[in-house]
Specification:
The chain has six helices and 16 strands. By secondary structure, it is of the alpha+beta class.
Length: 248
């Protein structure tokens, strides 16, 4: 499994479209197929995570899981206390009101903002709704991963410590709609499925029951089994959920 931290330059597009000359995939030209975890628009820059693991992508990007993303933003007018207050409390955009968030003034024209959702061009739209225009937008953190030490256009693999912390923060997050607040399916059912698959019933497991449609993955000694009417089935068939368990 690969997880990269990338400092995306301005002008690079988060897309896998082959015809886009300035796509992030072409820019990195990484030898293994990877994709981005959450877009940064073309005019924005900063931290972008890239991976070949779809489960991590889904767990990180489900808005209901409320994982933090932090940005440093420069606007065209002096920042006021009223602006900070309104941004923090929520701004009407895209037929909804943004979630309350942490906003701090760090300069005359600069502020930091921590979001737990990812609406389309959210920060730019929030500022525009309050009469401001974003001049520079830099993402500096995604969950426990920071931009520290990465120059413009550079990338690096996550350290073992960063991956351990990331997994720990994701362990209770759902990869499906509804977020981390999902019904938990107990170890007895997981043991029964393990037995059907030929594993010893005493093997340790981490269990989640996830409602809805999703792909199956097998990575880092974690096995995801799709469940349909109490039977293990192929992912292409109809099903009511899945059980995830890890073998230690």
């Amino acid at each position: 499994m690969i997880v990269l931290a990338v400092n995306k330059p301005r002008g690079i597009v988060c897309t896998e479209e082959r015809r886009e000359r300035d796509s992030i995939v072409r820019f990195l030209n990484y030898p293994v197929r990877i994709t981005y975890v959450g877009r940064l628009d073309k005019d924005s820059e900063g931290l972008l995570l890239m991976t070949n693991n779809g489960d991590i992508i889904n767990r990180m990007m489900r808005a209901a899981n409320k994982h933090e993303k932090e940005y440093k933003v420069t606007v065209d007018k002096e920042i006021t206390e009223q602006f900070i207050k309104k941004m923090s409390e929520g701004v009407p955009i895209l037929d909804t009101v943004t979630r309350p968030c942490t906003v701090k003034k760090i300069g005359k024209y600069t502020f930091s903002i921590i979001l737990t959702q990812g609406l389309n061009r959210q920060i730019r739209r929030m500022c525009e709704a309050l009469g401001y225009e974003v001049k520079d937008l830099l993402r500096v953190r995604v969950m426990n991963i920071t931009l520290d030490g990465l120059k413009d256009g550079q990338y690096r693999k996550l350290t073992d410590q960063e991956l351990d912390e990331l997994y720990d923060q994701l362990k209770d997050s759902s990869a499906l709609p509804g977020g981390k607040y999902q019904e938990q399916l107990g170890p007895p059912i997981a043991k029964e499925l393990l037995a059907r698959l030929g594993f010893d019933k005493d093997v340790s497991e981490r269990v989640q029951y996830l409602i809805g449609h999703h792909h199956t993955y097998c990575w880092n000694h974690t096995f995801h089994v799709v469940v349909c009417k109490s039977k293990v089935v192929q992912k292409s068939q109809q099903y009511i959920g899945r059980i995830s368990f890890s073998i230690s």
